[in-house]
Amino acid sequence: MFLPNRHPDYRTALDPRDAEALGLDAAIEVERHLIYRDNHAPTPLHTLGALAGELGVSTVHVKDEGFRLGLGSFKALGGAYAVACLVLEEAGRQLGRRVDVAELRTPAVRALAAGMTFACATDGNHGRSVAQGAELVGAASVIFVHAGVTDGRVAAIARYGARMIRVEGTYDDSVAEAARVSAENGWTVVSDTSWPGYERIPGLVMQGYTAMVREFLRQLPEPPTHVFVQSGVGGVAAAVAGHLALALGERRPAFVVVDPARAACLFETARAGHPVRVEHGEPTVMAMLECYEPSLVAWNVLSRVADAFMTVDEEDAVTVMNRLARPRGGDPAIVAGESGGAGLAGVVRAATDPAIRAALRLDGTSRVVVVNTEGATDPERYAELVGLRPGDVRPEPAIDAGAAA
């Protein structure tokens, strides 16, 4: 399904708070934070020339987040960044002065962080980032996972010292339970989705993702004309679209939000014109995107700067995983997890559907960027769907050794 953005706010200016959170100054500060993270390095931007030729576009570039900070996902940029910001703010309150990120690992700040507990709900990747961020600063973490999260992903999070709590039901049920239990215990919830009255911290999480956009704009020979990004609750799509709009202005690319058809909360929200919760049905293979209610902060951005919304099916996602693992025509091999290639699946669907192609003005001059949002964060599941181990596809580890064990 495909839907152009017809919201009354489309093409209007971002809310000043969103513009501040996703703008250039904020992105520069995020990159400064990254200097103090272990394993930090810009992630690669791959060029898929053969695929571009097949799709009838000029270029296809894939920003590969499968190696981000040893966690195997773009989520490494968000949760841990928010945890660090919150610890520094609390230190500033207690010490009566501004505390810089350079002081994050000092004994004084770590002693303060030791009394803090950070909690969140997760499909896997966000929880790993929050847990890693808490471990980095010396705080505690409690991570809530729903019934559909695999044991492999739970173990990967627990390796960062997190206390794990299983919740019956869906991701949205785990979000509600994390908020309830945290309120009872005085824990700080670091969620990547937002609801009325809880917006600032999800905004910090989104802010962390802007570093990825800064990187690929520097890595590209010229700005893209089209960007396709997948969505769960919408945080990464909003961060990418919002920063592109602020950084490039009228030269910004056409931006397309890609949902799994079985969990299309952003698509249905766009169709309704306001946030809606979609019914839980058969699980989607795109497990990291299996969310049934959008983030209000994300929708506030996407209603203004997304140009279109679309859905992809289960087989689309798995086909892209396999195509990236077995490239043609000299294209590089890429390890994309079940959700990682959903944006590229959207490109393939759009480029091969005459009506969508025309609506988006995709042609032989189009320069397309997508984000591989995750590598093989569950290596066993990856092998089931692709028939190859991640290391057989690309020799570099898809995630850190501890998480893969």
From TrEMBL:
User: The Tryptophan synthase beta chain-like PALP domain covers which part of the protein?
Assistant: 38-373
Among SUPFAM superfamilies, the record links this protein to:
Tryptophan synthase beta subunit-like PLP-dependent enzymes
* Key words, A-Z: Lyase, Pyridoxal phosphate
Nuclease: present as a keyword of the record?
A: no
| Entry EC number(s) | 4.3.1.15
The highest taxon in the source lineage is Bacteria
* A molecular-function term among this protein's GO annotations: pyridoxal phosphate binding
What InterPro entries is this protein classified in? DiNH2opropionate_NH3_lyase (IPR010081), TrpB-like_PALP (IPR001926), TrpB-like_PALP_sf (IPR036052)
Q: Which cofactor does it need?
A: pyridoxal 5'-phosphate
Q: Which Pfam families match?
A: PALP
Can you name this protein?
A: Diaminopropionate ammonia-lyase
Q: Which organism is it from?
A: Salinarimonas soli
